[in-house]
Each structure stands twice: as structure tokens, then as C-alpha cells.
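batch_manifest entry 22 of 60
target: DDE-1 domain-containing protein
source organism: Pseudogymnoascus destructans
requested by: lab member K.T.
priority: normal
notes from requester: please return C-alpha cells only, no post-processing; we will run our own comparison against the previous entry in this batch. if the run fails, retry once and flag.
--- input ---
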Amino acid sequence: MLKDMHFLSVSWYDNLEPDTLVIVNDSGYTNDAVGIQYLHHFIQHSAAYSSCNETRLLIVDGHDSHKTGQFITIAEEYNVIPCALPPHTTHLLQPLDVEVFQQCQHFHQKALDKAVRSFDYEYKLPTFLSDLPYIRNRSLTVKTIQSGWREAGLWQSRA
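--- output ---
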């Protein structure tokens, strides 16, 4: 989610993974339209990993955009069950908050360190977008994601 970035250069996206969703809006915050865009993105990409009409679970933080009639109707149409976490619990129950974002921060810091050592003292958006694949590929691993689910108490590994 990027705020009102009308000056964004298309070349800034060259290093991003092909299926990366970048949303630009006036406020930089989510809203109903952004929620619908994300839901469609989730449907498209989760369907690639599931069998025909298989039900999928989408864990959401309970933002109002996840409660609209349009969001719920689209989710039902595509066999997606939105599961809203209780208020003020995402830091405990959301696997991304529990583990994955810590890894993202770690590898973002490594990218910042590298930039500073290369005399890129400003580290603006184009540099961040260029570093994003490095950050994602090292932090969004199966091991890290499974660890987030375990740490949140939502998934138990077989012992």
C-alpha cells in the first residue's frame, strides 16, 4: 500500500515478483475498494494451489473493509471463508505479526546496512522496491511461515 504516489515510475516495479500486488491510493490506508482488490488477488493466487472449488481460509484483522456485503458476497462465491481475528489480538494470533514480519524487518535492516555502506544515505522508495525481492525471498520461507503459525498456537507440527 503506497500513499498518493502519482509520480511512481513503472521501472521501480521491475525487480518485483510478477504477481506482487501494489496498491496506490490517496490516503495510504486500506479501505473498502482496497479490501476487494486484495480479496480478488487472494482468490486468484490461492486457487492456483487448491483443487477446483476447494474452500480456503482467509485470516483478516477485522477491518471494516472485510465486513462489507460486497466482500462477503465475493468471498462466498469463491468458497473463501474470511476469519476475523478478535480486536487487539493480531500481535498474538496473526502468524505474520508473530514471526514473519520480524524476519522481514531483519532482512530490511540488512538491505539498509548494505545501502549505507554503498553511500545510499537517503534510501528512498525506488531502492526499497529494488530490495523487496531480496527481503521477501529470505523472510517468506516455508520454515518461517510454519513457525509463525506454531508461535501463534494455530498449527501444531507432528512430533
